[in-house]
Design goal:
Blueprint: E1 2-7, E2 19-25, E3 28-29, H1 31-39, H2 43-50, E4 60-64, E5 77-82, H3 91-108, E6 112-116, H4 120-123, H5 125-139, H6 150-154, E7 158-164, H7 168-189, H8 197-211, E8 214-218, H9 220-226, H10 229-235, E9 243-249, E10 258-269, H11 278-281, H12 289-304, E11 309-319, E12 331-333, E13 339-341, H13 349-362, E14 367-372, H14 376-382, E15 387-391, H15 394-407, E16 411-413, E17 431-432, H16 442-451, E18 458-462, E19 468-469, E20 479-480, H17 485-492
Parallel strand pairs: 1-7, 2-5, 2-6, 6-7, 10-11, 10-14, 13-17, 14-18, 15-16
Antiparallel strand pairs: 2-3, 4-5, 8-9, 9-11, 12-13, 15-18, 19-20
The chain binds ligand BES and zinc ion (2 copies).
The site of one zinc ion has 4 residues, from loops.
Length: 494
Amino acid sequence: MELTLKSARRFVDEIPVPLVVVGVWGGELSEEGHKLNQKHRKMLSKMMEELSFKGEFGETLLVPLGPRRSESEGPGFVLLFGLGKKRGVSLETVRKAGAKLVQAIAKLGFKEAVTETFLSDKFGKKEASYALAEGALLGGYSWHKYKTSSSASKRGEKLRLWLARSSGPAVDRAEIVAEAVNYARDLVNEPPNVLNPEELARRTREMAQELGLGVEIWDEAQIKQAGMGAFYGVAQGSANPPRFIQLTYKPQDPSGRVVALVGKGLTFDTGGYSLKPSESQITMKCDMAGAAAVLGAMRAIAKLMPVVEVRAYVAAAENMISGSAYRVSDVLTSLSGKTIEVLNTDAEGRLTLADAITYADQQGADAIVELSTLTGACVVALGDKVAGLFANDARWGREVQEAAERAGEKVWPLPMEEEYLEALKSNTADLKNTHGRSRYAGAINAALFLGEFTKKPLVHLDIAGPAYTEKSHDLGQAGGTGFGVRTLVELVGL
Ligand code: BES
Ligand code: ZN
Ligand code: ZN
């Protein structure tokens, strides 16, 4: 749907729209709801009682207020929106409520509505406004670019939602961040025949020009020339050439600190000669979700203008099979000079990332955050809602973890256990890209491999689980989730 948010200082019943939304929390009307109830001869509470409406989370009850001659007579309907139990409520409840609310209003067919800013007395106006607006904008996201039927175009309907007694600056910020998340979702959802490395680079350049970011893009010759042999090895099997994408945000009054964001940019991962079974390939257009998160974050960062300098790096490639594709047993020389024996062509992400991380380090990053749909093993460990967090520096790890907590994205630390590093040593080269036949600690081994390419503080987020979903979820429809954007913005965009 096409959702527009409007922040208003006024109370819910002072905005002339056909529908007013108030919350029901712990089975009771909110304060605003209470006032509205008094004004309408207790119609709301009577209705709640009659229909035993308890206000379970996301439950709704539409109450018609009777016929009216014009909009100036006030709203025609009140929508009671359930916020669930009093206990355990958090800003995440408000965020989810925003997402569910816009879907409910659209389903009812209203084009304009006003809602109270749920739980702002509990969490503060700013925080509640932010969470509600962000949830609404994420929940209102839809992607149907390639649908030609009229039912699909209907989903593009417009809705204007007023947030009564909300904080304008908080809503503005939520708009910037949610737009960036939805931008990342668009990139992930785009099919791989459209979004190949060149197209990803073209869109990045377009964005950089629009927002005034520095941009540099290398083609395959420059990648080879620079010595990125690990990245190039992965890319060499595809008819679609790789691109190395660099974006820079420079603050006006620099604090001196440089943060690098690195994102895995496999626009499709077949597995290469260590071919993935066809079912495992179904979601592999999401293998550039790390890149999408980083590019989405840069979008928001360019608008929010934080004091730190931020540089983004994406090694974009396609992992394919052909007469020129890399094979098992090949030895690649990485940008760092370290040689790598390929034991599995499906462990390609770490090869591309090795060179991107080395380059970020060489360019002078003080700290690096890298996001990648890196291992199925991480999904086995943490499921599809939680990203694995690996840090070679406890402080930087905590900083990123706290940013994720504030942003409402779930991450959980896993150890970079040094004892396992031995298993990544090769008889032929310096390293091998997998530890051979063992299925133990796959996510940790991948993280340890990346850790060999920088001594700077590095956080690796394995987002293989939460980056993509085949079912709709609390904050949106099936497809790319835009996971990571909010954490990155929270980390650098204060
Ligand atoms: N892109 C995959 C990881 C992945 C799996 C992402 C599921 C999203 C959902 C990655 O390149 C890969 O194939 N990793 C291998 C590593 C193994 C060969 C050591 C894996 O997880 O099986
Ligand atoms: Zn792979
Ligand atoms: Zn991959």
